[in-house]
Amino acid sequence: MQARHLASLLVGVTLAFGAAADTFKNNSAAGDVSSASVTASGSTTARSLADRAADFVSLGNTSTDSAPLGAETLGASGWTSAGWTGSQSIGWTHTAGNTSVLSAATLVTVGTAYQVSWTITGRTLGSVEIQVGGQTSGGGITVSGAFGPQATASSGLSGLPTIDFDGTVALSVRAIIGTSSATLLLRDSTGTLRFETRTSSAARNSFLGLGAGASNTTGINNVAAGTNALYSNTTGINNVAAGASALYSNTTGNNNVAAGASALY
User: Fold this and answer.
1) Percent residues over pLDDT 90 in the chain
2) CB–CB of 59/16 below 8 Å?
3) Spatial contact of 47 and 57, defined as CB atoms under 8 Å apart
4) Model confidence over 153-165: pLDDT tens digits?
5) Within 13 Å of residue 83, how many CA atoms lie on the same side as its CB?
6) For the purposes of burial, counting CB atoms within 10 Å of the CB of 21, is it exposed (0-12), middle (13-18) or buried (19 or more)?
7) Each residue of 201-222: pLDDT tens digit?
8) Close Cβ partners of 11 (under 8 Å, ≥ 6 residues apart)
9) Assign residue 198 a region: left if phi > 0, alpha if psi is -120 to 50, beta otherwise?
10) Cβ neighbours of 220 (radius 10 Å)
């Protein structure tokens, strides 16, 4: 019973205790388990689970690593590429000496957040700016990266080079279609969910509280503590949100500190 009780805190993750680990996996997607939904292995009688609490390790999976992404919206056709050579599959190389805009008539829905990523190779001079859905990455991009804005217009993708930019850019635009799964769930005596943690695969994030950091994709160095703190953050970095719904609407903003309920909402 102890094993089932502890495993019921988790959704689709594995608990491992100690060096010669006793492992318990909750196979229930809903988090409410029966004896049939828990897989156990190891020498479970050697020590009680309570004695081994200090050895607790929770292992996530792809659903806990990041908010999920939809299919690629960019295709082989629909590009305007004067001053560029290449294709969607191999990337687009800019011919230095012009500022022709690379554009794609991708379908963008106002109010939807998108993971917009780019890989830059072969560059020695210049930079590029990426725009999609009325949002901009800002100019001066010289290395690979991503941003995850919420579209405010239905305009498609544009790449705006400086006149001396001489690199190749491979682009991707995918809708963010949900939130990541929590790695740990805690319920009160009535079974009501009261607390959860998220363990993002993006580096050095700490997300504590119901919905905290739930939309994060590649944002790093963020701390969120409180229900729905930093809820909408996608690629924003170096943010601290303490309090229910603090920095709730931040998506790509960096270096913010908000303390208190709904602070910098």
Assistant:
1) 67
2) yes
3) no
4) 999 999 999 999 9
5) 18
6) middle
7) 888 999 999 999 999 999 999 9
8) 26, 28, 29, 30, 31, 181, 182, 185
9) beta
10) 14
